[in-house]
Specification:
The chain is mainly β and 174 residues long. The protein has no helices and 18 strands. The radius of gyration is 27 Å and the shape is rod-shaped.
Length: 174
């Protein structure tokens, strides 16, 4: 009697004396498998002879079927769910400067970010220039000019300050 190949193994031709383990990136969930199956995008098989695929955790992804390892999201990208085939770019007003990010963070008050590339989001926030501000909460895509009668001599300010007695501004952004 011929023995069945166990899960995680296969025999692709007749007359074999042993079953082979599925290669990395593939799995065999059933006995008597003739060929191993690719792991779907978003999952991987990192060792030989797997009977199932491992799901990529949030912050990681597998872009194509048949991979042996999940890939960390690059800086400027994040994903907050398991089994993903890609990461999403941070939008304007948010950023991430580390790999494997689950979420993008809001820019702190006094700063902003702009998503200028559709494929990659911001990796840092830019401080507002003197004469401009970005109020709480963060998430600004631009800094606003200080209104008339106020100013801000410092960069990275969350607010403008009123002109002191004896001084004035008649131009926004001073």
């Amino acid at each position: 009697l011929c023995d069945r190949c166990s899960v995680g193994k296969y025999a692709s031709s007749i007359g074999l004396t042993t079953c082979a383990q599925c290669p990395t990136g593939k799995h065999a969930p059933f006995e008597e498998t003739v060929d191993c199956l690719d792991c779907a995008a978003g999952s991987v098989a990192g060792t030989l002879g797997q009977d199932s695929c491992d799901t990529c955790i949030a912050g990681y992804y597998a872009p194509t079927p048949g991979l042996s390892a999940c890939v960390a999201c690059s800086a400027g990208l994040a994903n907050n769910a398991a089994a993903q085939a890609s990461c999403k770019p941070c939008t304007s007003g948010k950023f991430t400067n580390v790999t494997a990010s689950v979420d993008c963070e809001f820019c702190p008050a006094g700063s902003f970010s702009v998503q200028s590339d559709a494929a990659v989001g911001p990796t840092e926030c830019t401080p507002c220039l003197p004469g401009f501000f970005a109020a709480e909460p963060g998430g600004q895509d631009k800094c606003l000019p200080c209104p008339l009668g106020t100013s801000q001599p410092e960069s990275g300010a969350p607010e403008c300050v009123p002109c002191v007695s004896g001084k004035y501004t008649d131009t926004p952004g001073e």
